[in-house]
Amino acid sequence: MGGCTNCKGKEGCDDHKGQMMGTVEQALADLYPTQTWGEAHDVIAQGLPADELAGLAEELAAELKAATFVRHGGDDEACDYIYVLSLGRTPCVVQVRDHGVEIPDEWRTADGSTISELYLRVVISHRARVAAVQQVAIDLVAGQDGYLVRESPRAGVYDAPLLKRLQKLVAILPAYDLTHLDFGDIAHAPPGFHAGEWRALYGAEPSIANYLFYAQPTTMISTTYLPAGVAS
What DSSP line would sit under 100-124, residue for residue? Predict the structure, then answer.
């Protein structure tokens, strides 16, 4: 599934999706007067302030009974992330990769083996008061001189054990004035818009998510190398 949280009735689902897509259409119209990717009108940026972002991560940790970690987006990402650890234990890969936590001793004795973790990754736009959630697998492969970290996002949330947490997560977002966007409904190109430089970078059409959150394709696998002698 793509993240729908109202599966008990078609009427309620239709109302939710209608409101959600109305929010998306208005945001795109305000942000992209030229209807071209890469030409966002960022003057109206509305990202969560740092204290609210930290507060949301803390509330999610308490309500979902899971460790949460904030990662601010890079230069080509108009968003911030909150990782919710759903399968795995702390200290986890995200802590080591992003937050300077020391490499656990068990990693140092795991030459050639793989550690696999599963997260709900909340992506929060800087460009509008919207957020979306992806299921993300993170694998760490140990070698003699370091560790390869592979992050593999999916276009939504699919695994049954994650869905109850997803429902609780989505219910919290309105308190932070965030509209939840079902990922399955923002994974296609918006009608009438132009790819601009995106096609040259990635060879296809950008999805709605690329206009609102980040440049890279929504399911692009990323890799990071961590030398054995450093924390991150």
Answer: -PPPPHHHHT-TT-EEEEEEEEEEE
The CB density around residue 208, as the number of other CB atoms within 10 Å, is: 23
CA distance linking residue 213 with residue 172, whole number of Å: 20
Question: Is residue 121 over pLDDT 90?
Answer: yes
* Domain tally, the chain: 1
Q: What range does the domain containing 73 cover? A: 10-227
Tell which residue, 34, 84, 46, has the closest CA to residue 197: 34
Residue 221 forms part of a structural domain: yes
Q: Do the domain assignments include residue 5?
A: no
Domain presence at residue 3: no
For residue 44, name the pLDDT band (cuts at 50, 70, 90).
low
Omega of the bond prior to 91 within 30 degrees of 0, cis? yes
State the DSSP code for 214. Answer: B
pLDDT tens per residue, range 146-190: 899 999 999 999 999 899 999 999 999 999 999 999 999 999 999
Residue type, 67: A
pLDDT tens track for 174-186: 999 999 999 999 9
